[in-house]
């Protein structure tokens, strides 16, 4: 790691305060303000953390202005073309691409951990019909920790690769069971001879009397979606996982919190919202023009879902890859989806429109991923669950970083804007 020893000076109330400058390996620079309050009495205020570096991390590098995304230094484009989700999961969690022996070991661990404790079926039964699978996913990830007592006593008893494989493997079983439960279908158990993504599709779509037809192009497309979502530095859900981890909560509890943060429509829930938006536009007979006009009107309550990103002020590199994959998969599966035409039309119109151009709003990863998932047969309410499975390596790796370099518990400050000193009024005297 390459951190340079420099300082900068800040003048506050006429006093000079010296603050260290931190530089990362990609020359990103930060002013370390951790001593600011002690020296001056001031804190910094950054609504929505748009300009706050909350940690130092070695996992993922993003340059939002240039549209660059790299996992452990390797460009996303190379990984999308040459790798698989599980290889990338190893890269992200363990910090390196696995050797053949390491990959075999990791795959074996995933297989060893694919089953849930049989008693967990009673937990699934407790959910009402049509329960949202994200609610089930989060609750069941947390519930799984109850079946691993070492998580509460000696979490570090097993090597981290074992802990990581346990969560990564069980999450896919929980996700498939959550879907089967939400549709009133019997659970399908995993098959040890199937690889990660194929096994997941088997658990989702096989019937007790008939195995699902695993088409290679379908498996590859979903594996690519998982891979493209595998990490994205300090987004809302990953920052949540780190926040929870900083209190020394266990890996499962921290990941369950990540699922909750991901659920919102401004984050992972956007892939579901995009598809619903495209369906509404299609049903209304609009070619997208009316919707674009509404998305520009702040009073309409509408946004062009799948557009815009806090970090990318250029085309999201994942969206480029997904758009190409979308054309490819639909052609291979001989599917002609009118929603893809609407999406392309919306993109063209938005990229010509000064509202979107001036605000640097480009398609993000969610804009086309839903169309692929629809072609595969994944129901809309499961879209965000796919994102959660894909993001699991990133959450696990970030959890590991927090545990390995324990910082203080994450605890932001605030600027209080409520009433000043006030006294208790007895109930009879209140107006
Ligand atoms: N449609 C219309 N206008 C938009 C959109 C959009 N999708 N996104 C941002 N804007 C506008 C805002 O209204 C604001 O306009 P103003 O400056 O005139 O007030 C300006 O662009 C900046 O937007 P912010 O909300 O301040 O940007 P922020 O960085 O906070 O939000 C976000 C980023 C949440 C992704 C936003 O662009 C959005 O809501 N997009 C749609 C939802 C979405 O696709 N989310 C997925 C994100 S990617 C992911 O989680 C995988």
Question: What order do the helices and strands come in, and which of them pair?
Answer:
Blueprint lengths: L5 E7 L2 E9 L5 E3 L4 H5 L19 E4 L4 E4 L2 E2 H7 L2 H10 L5 H13 L7 H6 L7 H12 L15 H23 L13 H10 L10 H13 L7 H11 L4 H13 L6 H15 L4 H8 L20 H16 L5 H15 L1 H5 L7 H11 L6 H22 L27
Antiparallel strand pairs: 1-2, 2-3, 4-5, 5-6
This protein binds acetyl coenzyme *A.
3D architecture notes:
The chain has 431 residues and is mainly alpha-helical. 50% of the residues lie in helices and 7% in strands. The protein is built from 18 helices and 6 strands. It has helices spanning 36-40, 76-82, 85-94, 100-112, 120-125, 133-144, 160-182, 196-205, 216-228, 236-246, 251-263, 270-284, 289-296, 317-332, 338-352, 354-358, 366-376, 383-404, and strands at 6-12, 15-23, 29-31, 60-63, 68-71, 74-75. The strands form 2 sheets. A 3-stranded antiparallel β-sheet has the order 1-2-3. Strands 4-5-6 form a 3-stranded antiparallel β-sheet. Strand 4 and strand 5 (68-71) form a beta hairpin. Helix 12 (270-284) crosses helix 17. The longest helix has 23 residues, at 160-182. It is globular, with a radius of gyration of 23 Å. It starts with 5 loop residues before the first strand and ends in a 27-residue tail after the last helix. The mean pLDDT is 93. Bound molecules: acetyl coenzyme *A.
């Amino acid at each position: 790691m390459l951190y340079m020893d420099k300082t900068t000076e800040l003048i506050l109330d006429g006093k000079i305060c010296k603050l260290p400058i931190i530089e990362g390996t990609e020359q990103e620079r930060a002013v370390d303000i951790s001593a600011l309050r002690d020296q001056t009495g001031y804190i910094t205020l950054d609504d929505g953390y748009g300009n706050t570096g909350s940690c130092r991390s070695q996992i993922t590098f993003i340059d939002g202005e240039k549209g660059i995304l790299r996992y452990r230094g390797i460009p996303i484009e190379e990984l999308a073309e040459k790798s698989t989700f599980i290889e990338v999961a190893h890269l992200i969690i363990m910090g390196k691409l696995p050797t053949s022996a390491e990959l075999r070991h990791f795959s074996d661990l995933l297989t060893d951990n694919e089953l849930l404790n049989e008693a967990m079926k009673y937990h699934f039964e407790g959910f009402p019909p049509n329960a949202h699978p994200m609610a089930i996913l989060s609750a069941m990830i947390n519930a799984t920790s109850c079946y691993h007592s070492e998580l509460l006593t000696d979490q570090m008893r097993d090597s981290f690769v074992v802990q990581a494989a346990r969560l990564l493997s069980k999450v896919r079983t929980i996700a498939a069971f959550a879907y089967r439960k939400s549709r009133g279908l019997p659970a399908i158990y995993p098959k040890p001879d199937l690889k990660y993504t194929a096994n997941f599709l088997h658990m989702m779509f096989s019937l007790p009397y008939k195995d699902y037809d695993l088409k290679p192009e379908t498996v590859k497309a979903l594996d690519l979606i998982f891979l493209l979502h595998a990490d994205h530095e300090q987004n809302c859900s990953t920052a949540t996982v780190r926040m929870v981890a900083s209190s020394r909560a266990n890996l499962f509890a921290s990941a369950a919190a990540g699922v909750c943060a991901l659920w919102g429509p401004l984050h992972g829930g956007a892939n579901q919202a995009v598809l619903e938006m495209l369906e509404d536009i299609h049903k209304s007979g609009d070619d997208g023009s009316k919707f674009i006009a509404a998305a520009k009107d702040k009073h309409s309550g509408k946004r062009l879902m799948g557009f815009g990103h806090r970090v990318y002020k250029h085309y999201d590199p994942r969206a480029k890859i997904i758009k190409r994959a979308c054309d490819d998969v639909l052609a291979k599966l001989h599917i002609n989806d009118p929603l893809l035409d609407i999406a392309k039309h919306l993109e063209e119109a938005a990229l010509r429109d000064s509202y979107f151009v001036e605000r640097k709003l480009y398609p993000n990863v969610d804009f086309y991923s839903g169309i692929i998932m629809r072609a595969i047969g994944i129901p809309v309410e499961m879209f965000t669950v796919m994102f959660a499975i894909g993001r699991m390596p990133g959450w696990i790796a970030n959890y590991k970083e927090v545990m390995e370099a324990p910082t203080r518990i994450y605890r932001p400050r605030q600027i209080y804007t409520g009433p000043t000193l006030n006294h208790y009024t007895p109930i009879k005297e209140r107006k």
